[in-house]
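Below sits the subject:
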Amino acid sequence: MVRHDSYQQVFTALAHPARRRVLLAVYFNGGSMTAGEIASMFAHAWQTTTKHLQVLERAGLLQHERSGRNRIYHLNRKRLALVNDWLSTFRRNP
């Protein structure tokens, strides 16, 4: 059983359009991108991008690994499946 706060974290992370854009970009880039590649998509400050990445990581939607000086972010598809799980509630007859 999934805890309610898991849904809360995921949907809070997805509430911001920049974070949804990051997830889409990582997905269409084969499931991983470096922090620099992600940051280059935005005109805002590096600190803003970092905060968005931290929110996505806390929600479990992204994970990162270090490769030298780079952070490589990977999409966590299993955690993203919580969205589909929650929406499936509305596909069933009450």
User: Anything to note?
Assistant: The mean pLDDT is 91. Helices lie at 4-14, 17-28, 35-39, 46-58, 77-88.
